[in-house]
Each structure stands twice: as structure tokens, then as C-alpha cells.
């Protein structure tokens, strides 16, 4: 080794000590990479192993050490690298520096027969868990509701790529219904209405009360829902219901002012929520809200427990603790969950 070194050009000898460290660093860095790749390939349970920030910074130090390495040619034209192993600090990666991230689960995709069977189970659950749920829907009502819903979906440019539930709200004064509808991208004639339950939408003719806007409103993970605190306002009313009731938040939406005859509009925060069970729940079934969709407590619990609008929320909960904390620990999410609330008006009233 000494004879080979004396034949090197002088400039190689000047960086010999640096090259020794760099070569050793290269060996250790290569081991780190092999370790991380091996961890990536053998990790089970649908998880991917990555190096933490601390381990990554150590790797960057090693990369920086490789920059001054020079290749020189000996007399026979062979490429030579001085790589004598010099002691370097230990660079072991501790288990705490390896983190696991679960893969995002795919949305369930059932075939038509399986989706219909699940919808029938939910229909029975709705009838059992939500008092005064009605399964009595005339062919004319079904045809009208589905036609309006399909038209709204088309106008919004939405493509339904799987069997999923739409939460349809008919704000017509004589209706005031919420209808879970099993829909897909095919012929709307094959869509199925699970049942109908009374709700309340925006009240006209009263100051600061807006008509619930018509349209398709995605239940987006860009906005995190929340739960009622059960506190009373200045009128001793629990506006969002008792503590723990789910509040679905559809963001800021433009709505018609119900107290203005000229059709003037303004922005409201569109929510779907429960209401005070002692004071206001008895009014459900007629226009009574300030623009939101008011639910009876039992319907709130049904939608929440079975996750009818939580398709995207269940996906996000796989890696985001905020969404896991929001969703009920005792939930039984349906595989035909959707993410759209569709507000229609079967009376044909102006938007």
C-alpha cells in the first residue's frame, strides 16, 4: 500500500487524510441507504418506513463529506481512490428515528347488488333509530326527487364514480325532508331512496334568516367538522343541540335573504346540525332555521354513527389525528358512504 501511495501525484497525497474520512463516510452512508431500503421492502401491515429528520440530516453530513473526493489515474491508466479506513463516529440509526406512515385506504367500492343490500340494511336502521322516519314514498315523489337531484349533480359537473349515498334535502315549504339516496354514475332511474325524515331549513320573512341555498355541497376535508358544546345562548337555547352532537360544516355559501323582497343575497356559514331538544326540536318539519339544515337529535346520531357523509373523513382519519378525534369511537361506517349534500326545492321556488 505504501509503494502505491508514493507513486501518486503530489496533489493526491495532500488530500489523503480527507479522502480516508470521505471513503469511510461513503461506506457508512451506503449502509444507511441499504438499511432504509431494506426496511422499506420488508415492512409489513401496509406501512412504509422512512428516516426521520434527524437521520436525514446525518445523511446530508455524509454527503457533504463526499464532495472533496478526487479520482486520479495511475501510470497504467487505472482509476485509483485512496480509501484507507479511518475511525469515524458511530452512525447508528435508532428505532425512534424510523417512523411509520399508514397508507391511505382506498374508498370502498361495492357492486350494485352489494350496495343495494347495504342500503336496505341502512333503511331498516334508519327506521329503527330515527322516530317518524317514513318509508312511504309515492312513485311521483321518487321520480321528482331523483330527477332534481340528478340535475343538480350534473350541473355541478360531478361524476359519481362509485355506488355512494347522497344526502338530499328538499327545502320546499310543504316538504322539509332529508332523503338518503343511493346513487351512481349510471341511469338515475336505478337510484334508491332509503327513506325520508323531517328537517328544518331557512325561514323566510324574518330578519337575519336566509333561505337555505340550493346546490351540491361537498363535505370536504378542507374544513374540519366539530361537535356541540351544549352551552346556552342569551335566550337560554342550545342552538347546536346537546353536548356531543355533530356539526357538519359546508363552509361559506351565498344565500338569499329571506326578509328581503328584492332577492338580495349574502353569505352564510352553511351547517347541518341538531337543535335544542326542549325548545326548538318540536318545530322541525317546517321552515324555522336561519339558513342551516336543522336535524332532530336522533337523525343527527344516525348520520354520525353510520358515517353517511364521511367517505373522505374516514380516509383522512387514517393519518390525521384531528379527524380520528372527531369521528365517533363507536361508529359503524357504511361502505357506501358519500360526501355530497344536495339541496333541492321541489316547489320550484326561486333560488
Automatic annotation (TrEMBL):
It holds the Pfam family YkuD. Residues 166-300 form the L,D-TPase catalytic domain. It comes from the Bacteria. GO terms for molecular function: transferase activity. This is L,D-TPase catalytic domain-containing protein.
